Please model this.
Amino acid sequence: MMAISNTPALADIHSLFSNHDPHETWGKAADIIGSINPAYDFSILRTAFDDVMRLFHGTYPGYCAIQTLYHDLPHTLDVFLCAARLTHGVHVSGTVLADHEITLVLISALMHDIGYAQRIEEETGTGAQFTQEHVNRGVKFMQRYLTAQNLPHAWAAPLELMMRSTEHMKDFSKNIFPDERVRLFAQMVGTADLVGQMADRTYLEKLLYLYLEFKEAQLGNYQSLYDMLRRSRNFYEVTRQQRLDADFGSLYTKFASHFKNTMGVENNYYLESMERNMAYLSQATRLDELACLAMLKRGGIVEKSRILDYTGQPRVTDAAP
Model:
């Protein structure tokens, strides 16, 4: 990629965090990977990408479409592209990654939430009932997938550690890494998962969906959606200090190297977007519940959440004529 000197337009900055189209997201990620190594062989990663898309769309054999509201397709695309950008940022900062290492990082980013996928015989609710076990389910899927695709068995252990880095309520220090290289890759995937979702321009609105997922999973002690929103600022501060900085070694700072190389600016747009979200949340939660929700306007998410019950299905009373 050639660095450019002009300041990016606001629309270009916003588009960094709008990843709803798999074809467009793949193209962006492929350009980034190609800038690391123009000779990179995309065949394995492309197959994994397509298969994960099939899981979301309900065309993967034996599985129904992934239906979770918060952990949806745009979330996975956000994390995948965020991981590609972070991989590039780490690379241009001086840590050279081999092709198979790039592949492992990006496959784990793709599959980190695949445990929400339901087999056809499991199809009840949205899959959010598997919240507390979704990483274990995802690891098992990954292991079967490696065998089915005839991929190296030696990939299973590092992929598992990378996927487990996204268990953000688990103690990262309890993971046993074979070497510092695998630890770095796990830190990269964990960073991409957190940063990718918190930098999303609809992150605050999508917390309404996360609230519904938690209700379906019978998880958390939130008294109301408003209670969850009010406590999310503290969650961000703790996550940034304890997880992103302490556990993951402040790898999010490497995004600045990526944007300097690709957009010609020093900005860390991911960090800036997260901070904007939190500043807006602070403003909104100073208000009462009704006024707070009125400030969450993007994506029509508030309106949609009002007609869903805790399983993500239309409320019977609302659906009645």
Observations:
- The chain has one domain: 17-319.
- Residues 17-319 form a domain with the Catalytic domain of cyclic nucleotide phosphodiesterase 4b2b fold (CATH 1.10.1300).
